[in-house]
Amino acid sequence: MRKLLLLLGLTAFCLCVFVAADEQPNRQADKSSLKEDGVLQLKKGNFNKALRKYKQLLVHFYAPLSGEGHRISAAFEGAAAELKGSEVKLAVVDVAKEKELAKELNVTGFATILLYISGDKLNPVPCPVPQSSASILTWLKRRSGSADDLIADLSQSEASEELTVVGFFKELNSEYVQMFYAAATDLPDINFAVTQNNDVISKYGFTHDVVLLFKKSKLIQAYKMMPETSKEMLIIFITVYQMEPATEYTGQTSTQILSSPVLNHALLFVNTSSADFKEIHSAFNSAAEAFRLKMLFVWVNVDEPRNGRLMEYFRVREFEAPLIRMVNLTDHVTYHLPSDTLDVQTIKTFCQSYLDGKAKPKMQSEPIPEGWDTQPVKELVGMTLEKVGFNPDNTVFVMFYLPYSPESHALFPLWEELAEALKEREDVVVARIDASANDIHMSMQGAYPSLCLFPALHAERVVVYNGKRKVKDLLKFLDKEMKKAKKDRVKEDEDRRKYIEAAKAEEAKQANQTKDEL
């Protein structure tokens, strides 16, 4: 295709036309001025103008009420001062105010950071959530640099208080080095170094093509590079051993924990002032050593007020500690250690049963509220979710929400409007359930709020709605799924009829055999 000059010329012409057409509607909006000093405050009206003006535009999409957003914004201010006069410009977008812009740019999460290069609006480069302004500068430097930038004097790196990742490679132009550098780019908060020095590597008893982790002159762990090694595998190894075997959940470690590529988490809720804290923590830490790279072990001090929201999410009350919960970050099913004895062997056995898929989820539920089914939107709890949702005579549309989530509260009026539109339909139920107060005994993919349809079938089917959040679109989706379920129900009823007839025939046959024997 590239060799067809005529086609290229035509394509270039079309692109020019589209760009010109795209600029026309935005000219009036682009009149919004851009502040040249510090961090730009971008809006829908000046975003395109900033894209055209700056070769590299690093944008932080933040929520004003988020503590994490304020921390990153402060890091942006510091980095912007260092980058003054460079071709990189830093900017922020308040997603609470600029919802239309965020939707246009496909920004779905808070604390999202994207680098736009040469005005390319469609293919931004994701930036890892930085811990500081230095992290931002390091990421930008590593992105635009090469593996040669990591060649360093190891005498200071090995003795560093922080983790240092050192790659010992035979050839500095090998694929291993490029993979190592790619991992370094994705982990800007960690020190990286590369060396070919045989004297250094022989001191630790290794051969080349190995990655070593150091802290305070102590070798923590080694990783042998293999042909099947990927960047993702290397990142998992580094980030896991960057943390302690059992890491305390704090404001400083929360980002590390929640962004970890290890998705299975064991959480110990414990009171640090209790008499048995040291014994329990020691057992938890020892068990953690056996599950490195498979499971992340995190302990939470229930006596710390700032951990209240996490405890609320997992429905843990202070007097219930100590207890262990297990969760996978790709779903919202939680597991509870079925034992009051938190020793090493008990914890290890529970973790292994979870990994083997043998552990049973713990179903928690709020009390059934009085008059829960008298309002247009029914208020479900853990005890009523499956009974209502999997009723084969009703189609049930359920919103799974979080009470402290602005995104959830923003959908409440829409859900009331949907219920009002369907109030004459006795075969359709519109409901909602607090996902933080009730364990959901089913896999719930994606973030909350989540909209799920339970079709009127004997089979326990759940269909997740991912369309536009408008009543007409919800009704269209509902109608489509109900028609599909109606066809499936005919087949389902026929299969059930045949099964019952076969069972009765078998029962009659057995009865006749018994009669003959008598």
**Strand order across the largest sheet:** 1-3-2-4-5
CATH topology of the largest domain: Glutaredoxin
What is the terminal separation in angstroms?
A: 85 Å
Overall structural domain count: 4
Please state the overall shape, judged from the principal axes of the Cα atoms: globular
Task: Note the main sheet.
Answer: 5 strands, mixed
Helix and strand content put the structural class at alpha/beta
- Strand count: 19
- What top-tier CATH class of the largest domain fits best? Alpha Beta
CATH architecture of the largest domain: 3-Layer(aba) Sandwich
Helix percentage: 25-40%
- What percent strand? 15-25%
CATH level-four homologous superfamily name of the largest domain? Glutaredoxin
Q: What is the number of helical segments per DSSP (H or I, 4+ residues)?
A: 16
Tell me the radius of gyration: 29 Å
Average pLDDT works out at: 82
Oligomer: single chain
Uncertain residue ranges: 1-31
